[in-house]
Design a protein that fits this description.
The protein is α/β, with parallel strands linked by helices and 198 residues long. The chain has 9 helices and 7 strands. Residues 1-17 form the signal peptide.
């Protein structure tokens, strides 16, 4: 059993190294929120704090995106929107579904609830053409900024990395679209944790 687990761990590391390289880097970016898939997060701190209507993000949650399926159809708060001109120039087919990493002061930002996997590029942002920022969910914004009362709205000083691996493919739901590299890495980590516990 141990040789199998070690081989699986080595494979996971090799696959992750092969598919998790930085393709594009955007330094000194700001983050803001533009949707809240509250069926997932079950909270809307920014909506409450800023006295926005209860369903303020419903049109965004339900509307189609630059990459197809709506945020609600994907069932995640991990969707990221980047500069629509850049996305058009590079080509949405080459960008939609890529992993996005968000860093500040040497620390990577992760969703607060720990679920939903990595951030994913799935939307184009018109306002981001002239403003060096990314749009994200309320949950992502709070995790990145620490602004739990949504007093700032836009917070700067982030590095945004668009990776060369795809964590979501067009036409698939979030849960059904995990790529083989992700599955192998998750399986290896679970098996190694099981081995360590025994």
């Amino acid at each position: 059993m141990l040789p199998f687990l070690l081989a699986l761990a080595a494979l996971a590391g090799r696959v992750a190294a092969d598919s998790g390289q930085v393709a594009y880097t955007f330094p000194n970016m700001s983050v803001t929120y533009y949707y809240d898939n509250n069926q997932i997060a079950n909270l809307d701190p920014c909506g409450r704090a800023t006295a926005m209507p209860k369903d303020w993000s419903k049109p965004t949650n339900l509307g189609s995106t630059a990459c197809g399926k709506s945020v609600r159809e994907l069932g995640t708060n991990a969707v990221i929107a980047l500069n629509s001109t850049w996305m058009s120039e590079v080509g949405k087919g080459n960008l939609c579904g890529r992993e996005v990493q968000i860093w500040k002061d040497g620390h990577q930002v992760h969703l607060l609830n720990g679920g939903g996997g990595p951030f994913v590029l799935w939307e184009a942002c018109q306002a981001c053409i002239t403003l060096p920022r990314i749009d994200m969910s309320v949950e992502g914004y709070v995790a990145a900024s620490g602004d739990t009362k949504c007093q700032n709205g836009v917070v700067g000083g982030f590095e945004v990395r668009v990776m060369d691996n795809f964590v979501l493919r067009a036409g698939a739901s979030r849960r059904a679209a995990l790529q083989p590299a992700t599955c192998v890495a998750v399986l290896a980590a679970a098996l190694l944790a099981l081995l360590a516990a025994s």
